Each structure stands twice: as C-alpha cells, then as structure tokens.
Predict the structure.
Amino acid sequence: MDAGLRVQLEGSEEVPVIRVAGEVDLTTAPELRAKLAELPAAGGTVVIDMSEVTFLDSTGLSVLVASWKRLCEAGEKNSFRLVVNRPAIQRVLDVTGLTQIFEVFSSLEEATKP
Amino acid sequence: MTTPRSSNSRGDEPWDGVDKSPERSLVLSIPARPELWGLARMTVASVASRLGFDFEQIEDLRLAVDELSIACARGTVPESVLRLSCHWSEAGLYLECVVAPVTSVPRDEEQDLPAGLSQKELSESILAALVDAYGISIGDGSCTGWLRIAS
C-alpha cells in the first residue's frame, strides 16, 4: 500500500545532500525527520534533493520547516536548499508560501554551487 | 443535528442537494491508520480520472483528501474507522470524510514553529488553495470533513 520512502545522506562534508525519493506523508515523515536530524549541527549549506519525491503533504512540509528552523538558529549564514523539479511538489511549496523561506532549485548541480 | 464542538471551513456550506444516489457515489471504509490512506488517495484519483479531471487536478485531489484525512484523524483511537464518501455530478466532486470514534483534539505538537508554519496551518493553506470549499467539524465523538471541487 505504502509507496515507501527512501532517504539517503550523500554529498560532501561541506555540502551534505539528503536525497529523498517516494512519498512523504504522515507515515513516512518520521523517517525523513530522523535523517535530517543526522545533519551536522553547525549547519552551513544543506541540500535536500526532492527531485524523486512523488507526493508531499503538510506533515512532510512541517518536517522540512523544523529542519530549516534548526539550521537558521545554528547560524545566520546557513543555507537550506531544496531541489524540486516536479510540478506537483513545486505547487505545494507555492500554495503554502514556503518558496519564500526555502531556496528552491530545479537541479542538484545548481543547488550545490557555492 | 449536533452543534460542532469546533470547526474550520472555507467557502460556503457543503453542496445543497448533493446527489447521493448509489450510481453517483462511492464509499470506502478503512481503519483510520495513516498507512492505509494511500487507498483513499487512489480511490479519489480513480473517480476523478473517470470524471475527466486532468492530471494536475487529480494530483490536487490526492493531496486534498490526504490533508482532509489528517485533519479528521486527530485524536483517533485504535478502533477508529475512516469512512470516505465520494459523490459526483456534472458540477464536480464532493467528498466527505468521517472518522469515528475520536477523542478530544490533541494539542498542536509543533507550537514552536513560526506562525503560519505549523503542520495544521500548512494543511489549512493547502486545502484552501486546492479546493473550491471545505469544512471540518468535530462533535459527538466523530470528526467530519468535506470538500468540493468543480469539474
């Protein structure tokens, strides 16, 4: 029933990349929350690659918001970046106004640029 | 009709005269467990597809029914059941989600998030943006949510 979620920590120490694939909903959001909690507390630039996310609801969004808030509190210059290239995911970010607080990129290459 | 203990809505009331005839209705009853809500999303997507909704509208509906389920299933107990009713006409689609039994509405566990960014507020923003009207009310040990979207 559950399309499942795959979450992997990749990238470099300087720019960690969390690659997320599948459906982020009330059932799977805790898995994403746990992986985001593994990110270095000091912050810097963090990239969440959501290009393979097929469904994202408010529980998934609230996990992202909590992580963004934690990163902001760790340092003013920290950067929380999302990679989004599916219209349905972009739309949910647009209607909730979260594109105003997250940096959203259409490719991983763009998001990992200094 | 029992007066709701609490409610939240956008738009007017549910369609007057929703056609609930069996040939224009579908009812899904499942345990109110989040891991089964994919069934509700699939059901609504299937109905909307048959009604000729386009891909984007179907994606919107999948998300809207998920948010409605989340909103209605606050305060569930292990024996709670989610009953999703879909009714359609030429005008569009009307969905009703009833979860029972439910206990009191739990407090928002994300009070420390900035204003407008708690899960509940994000959910309300999504519903307000994606459907033409919706409402959620709690009373009598159950929670009822509805939404409608024009075809």
